[in-house]
């Protein structure tokens, strides 16, 4: 679908097409679920945070006692930079530089932390929206 944008010749600003103004206060929870049930909402974007993952059993990464603490404890002596840049241990660069360590130590440790995951109501809701063809995007900081 081609979108028509007009550029204002004097100010170089792009004029976007006009949309009806939407205020979240215009609908309540009942209206939201009625609209979903009737198929009125067909272009849905979901924005989630870490609570969805931790509720599913994904270990918290950065909190004390979380996955990054485990990685620092297990690999910090051999790779001191892990104390400052823990996520680099999970990078493609690390995997390419130390393929045996990644395959035999890092990957199994990570997999053990993800063994008992269970989808939450939020996961099932997103899957339902996807099956209906209404889910356009999911923006998340999560790994699941």
Structure in words:
The protein contains six helices and four strands, in the order ββαβαααααβ. The protein is mainly alpha-helical and 144 residues long. The chain has a two-stranded antiparallel ribbon with strand order 1-2. The chain has a two-stranded parallel sheet with strand order 3-4. β1 and β2 (14-15) form a beta hairpin. The chain starts with 5 loop residues before the first strand and ends in a 5-residue tail after the last strand.
Short characterization:
The chain is mainly alpha-helical and 144 residues long.
Shape: elongated
Q: Determine Rg (CA atoms, Å).
A: 22 Å
Biggest beta sheet attributes: 2 strands, antiparallel
* Total number of strands: 4
Uncertain segments are none
Average pLDDT for all residues: 84
Span of the ends, CA to CA: 31 Å
Give the SSE string.
Answer: EEHEHHHHHE
| Strand order of the biggest β-sheet | 1-2
How big a fraction of the residues is strand? 5-15%
Output the structural class.
mainly alpha
Q: Please bin the fraction of helical residues.
A: 40-55%
Task: State the helix count.
Answer: 6
Tag the structure with descriptive keywords.
40% helix, mainly alpha, 9% strand, 4 strands, 144 residues, two-stranded antiparallel sheet, two-stranded parallel sheet, elongated
